Each structure stands twice: as structure tokens, then as C-alpha cells.
Amino acid sequence: MSPSKVSTLDFQSFHNIVDGEKRSSKDIHHGINPTTSEDLWGVPIATEHDLNDAVASAKAAFPSWSQTPIQKRKELLLKFADLFSQYVNEFTDLLCKEAGKPRKAASIEVSGIAGFIQYHCGLDIPEEKFEDDEKTVYTEYMPLGVCAGIIPWNFPLILSIGKIAPALLTGNTIVVKPSPFTPYTGLKLVELAQEVFPKGVVQAVGGNNELGALLTLHPDVAKISFTGSIATGKKVMEASAKTLKRVTLELGGNDASIILPDVDIKKVAPEVVQGAFQNSGQVCVATKRIYIHESIYNEFLQEMVKATKAMKVGSSDEEGVALGPIQNPMQFEKVKEFFADSKAKGYKFAVGEPDVAPPKGFFVQPTIIDNPPNDSRIIQEEPFGPIVPTQPWSDEEEVIARANNTNTGLGACVWGKDVEHAAKIARRLEAGSVFVNSWEKPTPQAIFGGHKESGIGGEWGKTGLLAFMNAHVIHVYKN
User: Please, which pLDDT band fits residue 358 given cuts at 50, 70 and 90?
Assistant: First the structure.
């Protein structure tokens, strides 16, 4: 039975959540609606004092929460999932405003919250037992303490719960820092959580980069779970090293998709387009380099162009809209650089316009660059926007090497009718998650993390629970 609403959330006012209470600040920040470029509601910028109070509250709550039986923790998480489900429409509206997502895409993210929690509540913490004539050795796992989740702006809700749910399930307390670009849904999510969890168990402090730096340096924070750019991830790791914090870093990617010559072109090309342009390319595991076998290159590219032209770009509630705007002006300017560079170098635009200058909002038409050189910026770097290059290939060994020739390794795809052969190639790609005959779709049922500079460690799934725990080995010798 779903719980009745304890109170009606006000989706027009926003606060930091410290020690179970709403907290304002004299300094206010405004997010921007990326569809209109207009300011949204004011949100308080947490001070160092706010942060210290939150960590102190989390530290005080940890002994009791960590000793709460796991079944009770699961019960509360499931109660929270039920409560959240009563506000699906409100959270969807809010996500559309702060992120500019098409309503269908926002609904998918919001509806995934309850499912993510429910799946994790079906997991148990791993344990091992070894016994011989002399002793019994129990390998168990204990929670770390106070965790901090630093959330990016591209999926502010699902990536918040992706840190909160496993942290709480394993007996940790957590302080969440939403992105200043998309603070609203994250703050409201944690505000709602106060109706279910003891004070101090889950809190939220919003602010700027300085606040994130303070979290990484705080001596009472045991772990930083960070999702964001490679450059910032390196700074998080450097700062966390001062107190040897545990870190999980899920960073940028430059995912390759390899298209084998036996694919059903008309079926696969639109799927590859979807993988490249989902969320307007603002996905760490979006397809960012597309390698098409030379025997089908022209035909496949034309089918991609056709599918791309059919993608409507617009605001959340426009009929038939597939793609929203770039979420913030900083990223919009970065994406424009890839268009300008490709135009200046004379690369061929298979579809899309080389000049980006919308009248309002941060809209960019999805664009395909036809066969730029290997050393081009669009091949070497991650745009994090709706612009993607295609290249032909002829030799399988060479294209595998080309796909792996990057400092990143988050995701990759292989497409082919011969599934066994495609899977054989997939196992040679240096990435944390490789998808065969699908674009990149991370799932809570499996650990998610990257190779090389795409990150350290991973979270989600049964294996991912251990990222929030320390091994605790008990050696019992027989009398």
C-alpha cells in the first residue's frame, strides 16, 4: 500500500536540506530555462557553515543508520519510492523546465526513479566464507560512513538516486550536491526524502564549484561519488587524496560504434542516430564516433541523414519533439566550437548547419560530419552535444584499433547480424560497458564505470554496492 502524502510539496520554492530541515541562504542563484534563456526560481547557495552542519548531521546519523537492519533500510527505501511515485507529474514538469528535455524523455527519467530503488532493494550485500581445519574466515562488508554525491546537470534525477539508493541501502549516510545548472529536482527529491528517512541520513547542499571542493577536502567525508568531466574528476581525485577518501569517478567518454557489413541498414541506421543524439548528445555514453563498413557506408549514411532530418528539435511540449536544447550557456558555447572548427577545416556536413545562432534558447540541430580525418577535433574530443562524425572502415583489426585509440573508455557499440561475431569484437573494445545491437543503455542491473580516463571504479548493480563499503574480514580460529 502506498503511503498517503504527509504534506504537499511546494514546487515553486527551493531550499538546501540540512539536518532534516529546510535551510535558506543570503546568497541566491538562479538556474536558467534552456528553452527560453530566462531565469528560473532562486535557490540558496550553501555556505561552508551549511556544509559543515550537513556533514556533522550525517556523521551523527551514521551509527544508528548503519546498525539499522538491512531489511528495515530496504523498507524505508521502498516507502520512499512509493511516495516519490505520487509526485511523478510535478517532477516531470520541473525536469522539463530546468533541463529543457522533451516531456517524453523527462517522463522516462522520472519514472526510472522508483524502478532503480526497487531493483537495488532486491539485492543483498555480498559475503564470503572460507573454512579449513584451523579457522573460519568471514569476508563481510561494512559501510564507509558519510558519503558525498556530486551530481551533473544532464540527468539530475536519475544520477542523484543512482548515488542515494546504494549508499543508503549499504548503511551509509549521504550529502548530495546538485549541479548549479539543474538544482531544482535534486533539492526537491531530498526534501521529499525527509518524510521517510531519519534526519541526517540524506541531505542536499546546493552551490558552486567551491562547495564541491570543500566536500572533497572535508575530513569527515569518507567517499566522493562524482559524475562529470574528466578535468574536474582529476581535481576531485587530487583533493580527495589528502584524506585518502574513497572515490568513484564516472567521467567523460568518446564512445565508438562499429557497424558491420551484414546489418539491416534501414533498421539499424535510425537506432545509431538515436544513440548519438539522445538527450541532444548530452550523455556521457552517447555514441560519439561511428565507424561504418565501406561496402555499406554511403547507403548507411544516407539512412542516418534521413533519420536525423526526421528528428524535431524544440521545447518540451511541442508536438512530436525529439530533442531539446543544450542545457546551459557554457555547454552551448563549447558545442558551437565543434561546429566552427568543422566548418573552418572544410569538413563535409552530411546533415545539419555549420552555423549555430538560434533566436532564443540553446537549440542546436543534430549534425553529422562525413568522414573527417582521424586527427580532427570532432574525432579526438567529446563534444557533449548533437554533432557526430562518421568514417568508413575496411579492415576489422584496424577499426578495433581505431576505436580503442582514445584516452577514454566509457562505452561502445557493435552492430551486426552475426551476434557471436559482434560479441567477439565487443570483448576487445576497451570500455566499461559495450552494447551489441543496441545503442548505449546503462542499466541498474549492472555496474557502470569506465576504463582509462573515463573514470575509476563503478557503481550500480550488485557489484556496485561494494563501492560504498569496506571489506571487513573476520578470522575465527578454533580452540
Answer: low
- Residue listed under C-alpha cell 545491437: 437
pTM above 0.70, yes or no: yes
Burial of 317 (0-12, 13-18, 19+ CB in 10 A): exposed
- The share of the chain scoring above pLDDT 70, in percent, equals 98
User: Distance between CA atoms of 346 and 130, rounded to whole angstroms?
Assistant: 64
> How confident is residue 416, by pLDDT bands cut at 50, 70 and 90?
very high
Superfamily of domain 255-443: Aldehyde Dehydrogenase; Chain A, domain 2 (3.40.309.10)
* CA separation for the pair 124, 51 (Å, rounded): 32
Catalytic residues: 250
**Whether residue 314 has pLDDT greater than 70:** yes
Query: Which residues in the chain are classed under CATH 3.40.605.10?
Result: 16-251+454-475
The answer to whether residues 250 and 448 touch, using CB atoms and an 8 Å cutoff, is: yes
HSE (side-chain half, CA atoms, 13 Å) at 368? 28
Residue 104: which residues within 8 A CB-CB, separation 6 or more?
Answer: none
CB count within 10 Å of CB 248 equals 23
3-state secondary structure of 22: strand
- What does each C-alpha distance from 286 to 58, 280, 282, 412, 442 come to in angstroms? 35, 9, 7, 9, 11
pLDDT digits (tens, 9 = 90+) for 182-224: 999 999 999 999 999 999 999 999 988 889 999 999 999 999 9
Give me the chain's average pLDDT, please: 96
Q: Are 325 and 365 in contact (CB under 8 A)?
A: no
Say how many residues make up the chain: 479
For residue 289, give the 3-state DSSP assignment: strand
Query: What does the block give as the cell for 177?
Result: 550536491
List residues bridging with 130 in a β-sheet.
137
The alpha-helical segments, DSSP class H, found in 134-183 are: 158-169
